[in-house]
Amino acid sequence: MKKNDNLVIGIGSPYISDDAIGIRVVESIMKMELPNVDAEEASVSGLDMIEKMLDYQRVVVVDSIVSGEREPGTILVLTPEDFAHTVHGTNPHETNIATAMELGRLLEPERFPKQIFFVAVEALNVVDICEEMTPAVNAALPVAVQTVLRLLS
Asked: DSSP string spanning 41-85?
């Protein structure tokens, strides 16, 4: 089956407060039934991401981030180049996203996406088991969805 050109991956857990933001964005995108866009929830990272991305032209990954440097709900748009300084040899079970992206480009240069974006939403709570996001992150949900739509256009 031929895939669409675009993929939106929402990473996280719907049961861990703000960690659900990636899943919630993808749920919103799925409801829109956009042409030429696949959307998928994922609870994986690292090497597992390579296979999910193959054969797409553009991929947008949405996830929470905890930097402690920004207000909760702040949205960042990043590219693999923003993570280049974190690429390193590692245990395959603990491969970070930057190392996985570089490996994907090396192993499958013809099948790996030409464009990859990360929409990162600053989280406040990624510890507590709770199906509700904190107010600041919940308020950022429609803005994160619009950010993804802009990246897809």
From this structure: EE---THHHHHHHTT-SEEEEEEEE--SSS-TT-EEEE-GGGGGG
